[in-house]
Design a protein that fits this description.
By secondary structure, this protein is mainly alpha-helical. About 60% of the residues lie in helices and about 10% in strands. Helix 3 crosses helix 5 and helix 3 crosses helix 6.
């Protein structure tokens, strides 16, 4: 575990009490408030995972590659919606992955004025590496978790995502 992770685990998050609970905020009476705090703490996990990325591919461009790898070719606007960020931020991330040769911009066959983003073979190779790095970081951090708990967490996170 990194020093930052130990500090975060010891100190809790802004929404958690000093022992990782929500007793300072009355959340023990409201499971939804407690869940909100726990989900806010997931940001720390994501930041720790992003430390496993190569310097040439920070979290934003990695997210672009991940979405193109998962959903296939798409225009900038739907990509921006999936990322949950402003179009200008998405454009910067896309410029990064295009400049590195990980994606390409192709004319949209339905509208020649627009461009379609497509992951390149080099981008697919990098995406595989990123997936391996993330898996290794999770495997290291969760080494003391029973396999059944990992499966339960996967199931519950999938269910949470589908509820939104």
């Amino acid at each position: 575990m990194t020093a930052a992770a130990r500090t975060a685990r010891t100190a809790g998050t802004a929404l958690e009490g000093p022992h990782g609970d929500h007793s300072d905020h009355g959340a023990h009476d409201d499971p939804y408030a407690e869940l909100a705090g726990r989900l806010a703490a997931v940001g720390m996990v994501k930041r720790e995972l992003s430390r496993s990325l190569p310097q040439t591919c920070p979290a934003g461009p990695a997210a672009v590659l991940s979405l193109l790898g998962r959903y296939g070719d798409m225009r900038l606007s739907p990509l921006s919606e999936l990322l949950g960020v402003d179009l200008s931020v998405t454009s910067r991330h896309v410029a990064h992955v295009v400049a590195h040769g990980w994606t390409e911009r192709l004319p949209d066959p339905r509208d020649g004025r627009c461009r379609i983003l497509r992951i390149t073979p080099a981008g697919r190779e990098l995406l595989d590496e990123l997936g391996s790095r993330y898996s290794a970081a999770l495997r290291t951090a969760l080494v003391d978790w029973p396999t059944e708990d990992i499966g339960t967490l996967n199931t519950l996170l999938t269910r949470l995502r589908s509820s939104f």
